[in-house]
Amino acid sequence: MGGARYVSPGGDRPHLTQLLAVIQKNGVNMLNAIRTRLERVGRENGIQFNFESKIGSTRDSHRLLNYARQHGPGWDKSLLEAIFRWHFEEGGDITSHEGLTKVATSVGLPEDEVSKLLASDENAAAVDTLASLARQKGIYSVPTIEINRKRINVEGAGDVSEFFEAIINARKLMPEEELRVELRWEKNKMDDAQLEHVLGLQDSSLPPLAPPGAIRTC
């Protein structure tokens, strides 16, 4: 995770089920349409959404993920996937320290360290800073996707064709000199002739391979 964006940052706000949160945000008239779409997209991706899961402040889960990242490579990814499965499919309460501890230990993190962290304010400053930076950059939804440092308007559950079209459009808008810099992301990997050849493909319908950092999910 390259940043942090809190869901329901106010810790004193009442916890809502996913179902009630959808109604509160979009109105009861939109409930069936939104639920049907989420269920359809979920089935297509092997996800069975549980609308009774509790929504609240995600600050503690961000603190826990920050700790997992410090634990070693790959730990934060494993933990994040476990949290998502527990919260979105198993009806977990994202604010529950007991629940978060069980999820963390299920992926192999030490229970005593996890419990101690959640009972304290450890890592709070770090994730608060990341959340503040996200707000300063105008990030108010997840995921927020950037291609070639340009933010695109595609929802996380968008169709593959939407992402493909966004990549093509971002490439067309990219200034040639900026593209030259991006293409040289590995020093001396591409000589001038190869570079000119790639630049000559700008009208092609196929996107180039993106260098590291060209596509970012916030």
TrEMBL record:
Alphabetized SUPFAM superfamilies for the sequence: Thioredoxin-like
Domain DSBA-like thioredoxin intervals: 31-164
InterPro entries assigned to the protein according to its UniProt record, in alphabetical order: DSBA-like_thioredoxin_dom, Thioredoxin-like_sf
Signal peptide segment: none
PANTHER family: GLUTATHIONE S-TRANSFERASE KAPPA (PTHR13887), THIOREDOXIN SUPERFAMILY PROTEIN (PTHR13887:SF41)
Identification of the protein by name: DSBA-like thioredoxin domain-containing protein
Organism from which the protein derives: Zasmidium cellare
